[in-house]
Specification:
Layout: H1 5-13, E1 27-29, H2 31-37, E2 41-46, H3 57-71, E3 76-80, H4 86-98, E4 101-105, H5 116-123, E5 127-129, H6 136-149, E6 154-156, H7 163-183, E7 189-193, H8 197-209, E8 214-218, H9 225-242, E9 255-257, H10 270-283, H11 292-304, E10 313-318
Parallel strand pairs: 2-10, 3-4, 3-6, 4-5, 7-8, 7-10, 8-9
Antiparallel strand pairs: 1-2
Helix pairs in contact: 1-7, 2-10, 3-7, 4-5, 7-8, 7-9, 8-9, 10-11
Bound molecules: pyridoxal-5'-phosphate.
Length: 335
């Protein structure tokens, strides 16, 4: 059942929320890129400009997710991923801002130098561990147990209250809709790189409001797209449940592609490198090596295949991640 924007706003406003991000993030035309590609008009929604700690989509997600940590009385924020994880940087910064302890369990991977995100996580005062990749899960489990034994209440920002990361992008959908209306933009599709949460939140928000923009997700990791769509549908039902939305949500609502990631997460491909250079050179806009350059490579491939053409409109959601560039000079051919 479709509901009004005011009603959706009212339901979101009923949830605990922190105010961390500089919102609304801008929506800007990419005129030179659009002309260069000779296809649809492309706009960018600058979620890389959410403010805290050099921005990115997690800052918006954390407004609702970490509000749950505060409600639960948690005193440590924990995150574990790659050494150059954006979320680790953002977790460390938000912990600093809220006066909480941060623990980052990265891994000793190819980008584990004190540059980019890892440098920033350290500057924000996080306790950083970089175990061998095969030991990472055990180190996280031991750290969580040790924190609890010391009387702490840890909150893992990957898994705890995870549905609220999507709830935040239901709010993001409301914001984008209002901006598109103000600027006279009628998107045929939204492109973004998402593991799940941003994509799911946008789809739930747009569906709740009866808006039929196509949302096309590009995966940052190798995966089975059908399985991903099933997982997204499950998360979407949970998200709808939080907001008491009466929606039919199924795997068919989720279009996403793992075709542009390359051999693994965080590995630069010829296409992602070309996309990163093209956007930088045409627009003075930075993409990142692990997420947005893959999404742009996907959009460019779909334009070149003729899926999107002149007369149509695409909004590219820039989810951030640019601090990782500083650990990727070699991968980009400059060291
Ligand atoms: C820059 C960037 N883009 C996209 C994502 C994917 O976010 P989500 O899976 O929360 O949609 C992340 C984090 O995982 C990120 O750091």
């Amino acid at each position: 059942m479709v509901i009004s924007r005011e009603e959706l706003r009212r339901r979101l406003d009923g949830l605990p929320r922190l105010h961390l991000a500089a919102l609304p993030t801008p929506v800007e035309p990419l005129e030179r890129l659009s002309a260069h590609l000779g296809g649809p008009r492309i706009f960018v929604k600058r979620e890389d400009l959410t403010g805290v700690a050099m921005g990115g989509n997690k800052i918006r997600e954390f407004e609702y997710q970490i509000a749950q940590a505060v409600e639960r009385g948690c005193d440590v924020l924990v995150h574990s991923a790659a050494a150059q994880s954006n979320q680790s940087r953002q977790t460390a910064a938000v912990a600093a801002k809220l006066g909480l302890k941060a623990v980052v369990v990265g891994r000793d991977d190819a980008h584990a130098q004190s540059q980019g995100n890892l440098l920033l996580a350290r500057l924000f005062g996080a306790e950083v561990h970089l175990p061998a990749p095969q030991e990472q899960a055990a180190v996280v489990a031991a750290k969580m147990a040790a924190l609890r034994a010391e009387g702490h209440t840890p909150f893992h920002t990957s898994t705890d209250a995870r549905v609220f990361r999507s709830v935040a992008y239901v709010d993001g959908a409301l914001e984008l809709l209002a901006q598109c209306e103000q600027q006279g933009i009628e998107p045929d599709a939204i492109y973004l790189c998402s593991g799940a949460y941003t994509h799911v939140g946008l789809v739930v928000g747009l569906k709740a409001l009866g808006v039929d923009w196509r949302v096309v997700g590009i995966s940052p990791s190798p995966r089975d797209d059908q399985q991903a769509a099933e997982g997204h549908a499950e998360l979407a039902r949970e998200c709808a449940g939080v907001l008491a939305l009466d929606l039919e949500l199924s795997p068919e609502d989720f279009e996403s592609y793992a075709d542009f990631v390359g051999p693994d997460y965080g590995v630069v491909t010829e296409e992602s490198k070309a996309a990163l250079h093209l956007v930088a050179e045409q627009e003075g806009l930075l993409l990142d090596p692990s997420y947005t350059s893959k999404a742009m490579a996907g959009l460019i491939a779909h334009i070149n295949d003729g899926r999107w053409q002149a007369g149509q409109t695409i909004v590219f959601l820039h989810t951030g991640g640019t601090p990782a560039l500083f650990a990727y000079a070699k991968d980009l051919g400059y060291a």
